[in-house]
From TrEMBL:
<protein>
    <recommendedName>
        <fullName>Transposase</fullName>
    </recommendedName>
</protein>
Amino acid sequence: MQMATENQFVLFYSIRQCPTDTGCFIPHMERLVASSLPMPKTVIADAGYDSEENYLYAMGEEKELSFNSLIPYERENTSYKKDIRHASNWTYEEQDDRFICPKGQYARFK
């Protein structure tokens, strides 16, 4: 569920079947545009809406209507740097085109 609020009052909402907020921003705003409600001058969203597509949409490059937006860039997730299951933590042998996991097992990616 996506909500548009002002001064802690819900002004508009939409329900979508998206696994993340990133894919909900544009459809939610399009429904707001199609309604009889006035468009906000500034849209504030959390980092879950961080995507190039959403930034371009807010700037008006994909439509005529534009508005100011405050969507922070999501901080880089560094938890994978300690995860031995993540291939970026494995040693790559270019000559044999294979990776070696921290436990010494070889893996080829297809």
